[in-house]
Amino acid sequence: MTRLVFKNGEALKRLAVGTEQADKFRIPYSDKDTNQKGFLLVKDDGIYLMNAYAGGLPPNELGTVVYANSFDPNKDEDVWERSRGAVGGDDFGEFIPLGAVELQRIIQGHAKQIVINMKPDSYTLQV
Question: For domain 2-126, is the CATH number 2.60.40?
């Protein structure tokens, strides 16, 4: 099991606010949208959370990319190899549903971090 930790700071709060305000969200690897609010968990050049809401500005322009601790290619060495070892070799995007209570805990600063425990075929989320 791999434990991914995302600290709650300004970028995560902006991500939660944008998610709370949006009405439509993309489902990765499909042409479908959903009304369920949530983030995208992405593994490519690092491991990070980003917006899943459909339309609008790209996430980097909104400051809504939040890297997992020790998986930020701008700050950490050997991120590609460690990401591969932590969650596998293939790049992916996974929709992570979040409820209104979880989003408010992030926005209000009550959640100090988000923890995603990854297993080969499932995950658990702690907010």
Answer: no
Amino acid, res. 68: A
Taking the C-alpha atoms of 122, 79, 14 and 107 in order, what is their torsion angle to the nearest 10 degrees? 50
Mark 35-45 as b/e (b = at least 16 C-beta within 10 Å): eebbbbbbbee
**Amino acid identity, position 116:** I
Burial class (CB in 10 A: 0-12, 13-18, 19+), 115: middle
| 3-state secondary structure labels for all residues of 4-40 | EEEECCHHHHHHHHHHHHCCCEECCCCCCEECCCEEE
Mean pLDDT of 33-47: 94
63 has pLDDT over 80: no
pLDDT digit string, tens, across residues 93-118: 999 999 999 999 999 999 999 999 99
